[in-house]
Prior knowledge:
The structure holds 2 protein chains of 2 kinds. Helices cover 69% and strands 0% of the residues of chain A. Chain A contains 3 helices and no strands.
Amino acid sequence: MATAIYNTLFRRNWTMLGAVFVGAFAFEIGYDNVMNKVWDNNNRGRQWKDIRHKYVEGGDDE
Amino acid sequence: MLARSCLRSTRAFAGLRNGAVHISKRAASSSSSGSAAESPLRLNIAAAAATTVAAGSIAWYYHLYGPTADASTPAEEGLHPTKYPWVHEQWFKSFDHQALRRGFQVYREVCASCHSLSRVPYRTLVGSVLTVDEAKALAEENEYDTEPNDQGDIEKRPGKLSDYLPAPYANDEAARFANNGALPPDLSLIVKARHGGCDYVFNLLTGYPDEPPAGAQVGEGLNFNPYFPGTGIAMARVLFDGVVEYEDGTPATTSQMAKDVTEFLNWAAEPEMDDRKRMGMKVLVVTSVLFAMSVWVKRYKWAWLKSRKIVYDPPKTNNIAPRR
Lengths: 62, 324
């Protein structure tokens, strides 16, 4: 397992660099999603998106 | 010590050169312990007097200028606002946008007759206070100057989302003239621009007493408000129960309206606050994880140093006779 990871990712510099970039990108997406959920949960009912439906006339987005 | 011995040696030389007169003088001055200049009693009195003067002048200075130096009297400073537990000032809480909507209604129906909000364009209201249709309708109620046309004339056009909220007066002079010489400040940044921020604005709006306290000096055309620096404010109390009728059915008490409009003015001053706090929360979580990792790495790398044991190996004791 460890050697497989070493051989596919870390052995050559360009694969290592690609792993770093892809990993950073994936982490950012996942982390932002989780933290935005935490934020929305903490501010439930306070944000505009929670009260918007009361004021928007149907059918027409934003 | 060195200086004293040098002095003594030159005096000794002088004595040698000039004969016995000087020597006897020196002997007399150094041996007469009862001389007036060096009496211990006098020295003690002088020391005590000097200490008294020094301590007294420090005490006098402290009495005059005290522990705090105030540039103004308490009345000129204004009463310090009461601190209120604003929910939107907590670290991880956004604005309550329902309150922003109510606060904007209060601004539009009450404050806007004198106060401008000139740094807020209609487009910022979209998506936080109004829907886009409401904001467009509101913008179209006002007329704005166009760019000069082919003849160089400036015409009027209905407002667009990119226009800024119109000011009640054409300029500051007109505002002063209409308000008895007092200029109603622009409210765009008022929460940031006043000490106490939200607390100050709320206290000012709700702090008008029914009548000024006995002995208070209230100038011509001014109203008494203890929270306003100088206590004489040109603005009269404007928020009374039921001045505004809220669309969402919230009872429009004075304090409710003051709270809503304060939160709205805080939004006007810091429209980026929600995003800033959300980003700050992400940053704090990531940096605390990184900090914990760096502490762990440090302990890991230092473990060999911290856990080593230094052993003292004493010399052989064969040659020393045992103690009895």
